[in-house]
Inverse folding.
């Protein structure tokens, strides 16, 4: 669980920032699309962090 949380912290911040930049680049400069895109980054990071943590545990 600790490894998952560590991976999630870094991955969620990275994905949320990337999604936010993508929304701003697409011309969505109001608050709602920026917030929704960053929330989507946090949600998408959950299964990816679980998968990465699982693969790390298998190889250690």
């Amino acid at each position: 669980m600790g490894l998952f949380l560590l991976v999630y912290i870094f991955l969620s911040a990275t994905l949320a920032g990337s999604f936010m930049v993508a929304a701003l680049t697409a011309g969505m400069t109001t608050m709602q699309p920026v917030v929704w895109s960053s929330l989507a980054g946090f949600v998408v990071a959950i299964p990816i962090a679980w998968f990465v943590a699982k693969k790390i545990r298998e190889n250690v």
The first helix runs from residue 2 to 25.
